[in-house]
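Troubleshooting log. The previous run stalled partway through. Resubmitting the same two chains, unchanged.
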Amino acid sequence: MSANSIYSIGYTSLLNAQAGISVASNNIANVDTPGYTRQTVTTSSTPYITLNGQTVGTGAEIEEIARHYNSFLGGQYRTASAQQAMWYTVSDYLYGNESLFNDSSEYGLSTALDNYLGGWNALTQNPASEAARSELLGYAKTYTDMLRQTSAGLDEQITILDDRISDNVTRVNELTAELAEINTLITGRSDDPGLLDSQAMLLDELSALVDIQTVPGSNGQVTVQTGEGLTLVSSERSYDLALLPPRATADLTTGSGFDGAVYFSGTCSDEVTVEFVTGGNIGAGAQFRVSLDGGETWVTDESGETAVFDAGGESDPVEVAGVSIWFGTKTDSAALPSAAASEGDSFSIVAKKGLYWLGGTSEPVNITPQGSPLDAGGGVRLSGGALAGLLSCRDEYMGDYQAALDTLAYETIWETNYAHSQGAGLTHRQQAFGDYPAADTSAPASESGLFFADEITSGSMSFAIYDEATGDPVGVTELDFSSVPPGIATFDPDVHSIEDVASVINASFPGMMTATVDDGRLSLAAEDGYSFEFAGDSTGLLAACGLNTFFTGTDAGSIAVTPGVTADPARVNTGHVNGAGEVNEGDTATADALSDLSDRDITFQWLDSSSTMTISEFMHTLSSRVGTDSLSAQQRFAYADTIANGLQAQKTSFSGVNLDEELTSLTRYQQNYETASKLIQTAREMIDTVLGLI
Amino acid sequence: MRVTQSMIYDSSVSYTNSALGRLIHLSNQNATQKKINTLSDDPGGVEVVLDSRSFLRNLELYDDNCGLASDWLKLADDILGQASSLLNNTIALAEQAASGTLTDTQRDMIAEEAREDFEQMVTFANTEFNGDNIFGGHVTDGQTYTPGLHATVRDTGTDPEAVDYVSGSAGTTMIVQFLDAGTVGMGAASDLAYRYSPDGGMTWETGVLAAGDTELDLGTCRMGLADGTAVTAVPSPDPAEFDREASTTIYVRPAATYNGDDSDGNEIRHYGDAPVSAEAKGGFASNVIVRIDSDGDITTGLDYSYSTDDGATWVTGRTSDDGVLQVPGGHLELTGAGGTAVSAGEQFVITPRTADISLDIAPGGGEVVINSVGKDIFGGLYAAPGGTGACADPAGADNVLETMANLVAALETNDQDMIGRCLEDLNAAHDHLVNQAGVVGARAARVEFVQSALGSQKTATEYRISQTEDADLTALTTEISKAQYTYQAVLQTSSIVMGMSLLDYL
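Second attempt completed without errors. Output:
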């Protein structure tokens, strides 16, 4: 044991203390640095030596500067954080959305609807009153304005969501690229705390956007997959996500020889799954069913049975949930495929911008969340992270609300117009203009392209003719369709076209009234000396053509009171042409029928289910649904938040910096330093003492 | 557990936030005094409140309708009560006149009063509420009854329906007799001389009806006779007291014509070309569409559906094997007219002549008719749609106005026999009027009953809304104090924890 060795021990302890101070100061300096992981110095004894048969210590050296990171907690936290971020996004948007439907102020959509229906009641009290008519028109205008505003509000939300989705996808791709970059850099430097901290931070940020799972490699590299197992980062490569425009994919049964492809137009917030239930050629026997939730449940008809549709070509598409579906060959949407479809062949139509994974395979893989995030899961669809939350908000929530509003508007327009088209106003008509255009006026009415074509039924209609000068009834005449091919007396929507209707009217009222078809619209005009009135229509054709109707538009975004009625309140129909061919001022038949809408049950076809209730009840159910969605999202967020925060606390508890602790370390190392210098001083003094002997 | 610096600050922030959030939430409830301020506060409750509010608004509408119905019906009830008293007065006049021991002056006064009673009855029948006729059916504008003239054929030998119309005016009843016998109108062989008296037969004017002509000039008025009416001539020599029975004698007397509409009968619109004719029997409140659902035969069997809302909804699966199709309010009878086959898709629209103004007064389709068809109460002359000219409708004693007008004629012409007959008719007319008043009175009573039931429903609904959405003030105040206390505690502990550092002690 020499004084030199004491020097040496003193010197290393001095270095050790310096290292300790440096690590503690680094910890203190980074107390607020996001993602920083606390480090500590671990020392170990240097080898003992044997001196004169005695074992003597040689001091201590730094073994490692340890980074306090628990990768198990890190992984758990990221899983929880994905849920937290998703529910935060959903609850945030839904909470904001509530105000669109909130009626607690009594100035909401429900009140406007009640007021509108109440307006018809006021007219039953006083059918001739100009004031009651203006009041009704005011209420109707408020109601339609509010529907349009609410619809526009939802559109706005959807636009914002689309923007954020797009931003987030870009960010995810940036993050995965950066992670791949770190994977490259970290090779051979697997203990670089800076790189490891960056990697952990990037993973944390990524997990808030997409649910991920990680597989750490021994070389410091990390493999990142979506929660559902699609690889995002592997070694030095990253795989991008992308938003793709509407597209359809086929999933044929083994052995199916079907050589066609599915085509579609229109948009739908839900993915549409088409599955053949009866094999056969397109347009000749092949039938399919439709699901809006990936095959969990199938769209039903009004009687509650699974609806089965006849597959057709481009000229005969099937309309489901706002999407027209038809089949063509793989190269030509207008040509019919030659081979037959087999039972079980299915097609998936994504009639919206969807999120896809572009890794590996030639076909993009659809990872857009499907169904409510409350029971999400299954397959490769995203089930966590802000991106899943945003997509769910857009499709599952806002999309459904928009569809519900459209259904509400549809039923309001159709039920009002049907009843209104049966009635008569205060003055006889000189002319009437159709409001809804038909794409093909020579095709049978059911295929004419009229928006309400599906509502038209068999039957007929009557017109009352009056002397223009005296107003005396000339007579009520029923339309007889025998004069046009195929010579059947009543109107049949699968046979007679709009042009047929016009020619029958012209044949029935020569010299009194003429019908013309212009630009797809049916119009009527009285000849000189006559006026006319609509005297009942059991086909719904008048309502579908927009003749003698009250509302115009087809959905929540376009509903409005017909300009003709707004301009002339006398055109609000309260009465009707009675058995004596007269329209009397005190008659309230039509006002009654419309006022009765307030407690008449109507079948609402909303997305894939149909329910029977009054218009007001439907509106209230919608409000309640908005509230329930928001409440359960809030509750799920609270739950996910608690878990994530707990894990976050555990993680920081393990990896975070405590200033008091660092101060203690600092004090300790400072004292170590002082003591080590004392050691050197002692050694020097020892040597000096020895040298003094000479 | 290690506590790190960021945990201290993060948890302070999150505790403060949640405590403050709770306080703000409660203070919001306190400000609005409502438990439900946004949909997610209680989605189930929201639906209850919205449904209840709609129901309440409907109740208010019903209540409003009840108020209006009650006004109309009370007015009608009141008027019909007065009409009944008026008719009693007329009956008393007729009884006095029938006693036969009256001076001319007394009889003139009675006649004058009877005429005034008639005019008053027309005024009653023309009653308006807020400018709307209450006895005109759907014709709420214009005058329900127009006063005018009509004539009664007095003798039994002449066709009682001989008079088509009377135009012009006459202050008193005019007696018309013929001096020549013959036929009026196209079948006339020669001119017919006639005489008329405006003063009960004291003085006469004469005139000549040219052959082929049907309209008699009576000075201030003109009377049209039916073409082909056979008339007999005044006996010769002319008796001193003119004879009402022996030859054609016509009284031109006051009358009132009904301009409102009726609810008698219906019109069938046939959509299709089946060789059958259709007739609907019963009382229909609104259009009923009957649709044939399968090719069939009216004699052997057919399937049909019907709709009472113009085709919006259908009641399906009905069958008939005798051409009689049952529908709400009555039935549709199909009879062969060149064939008996009907094909699927044919439709028959029963379009009744509607006259009722009905208001919804109770949930679930409770309705009340607030107006009346005047001619069914007061009678008078009525030209039915599609008919020819105005005639007494209803025929017979139930026609209050015609019966009263006949009394006026009998009194003004001092016709004792006719006064006696009128007295009987008047009693029958009075019974009819009282019956009709009873119908209106019953409706008014029902409205009152419904209105009070609506009141209790309204209270119950308001209570339900309040129970669901109103905040419980006592509980709320306690909760707020609690939340306030929590918030203060969080702030205090946070500040203590954040303020501590080892530095203070080194």
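Takeaways: The radius of gyration of chain A is 38 Å. Chain A has a mean pLDDT of 89.
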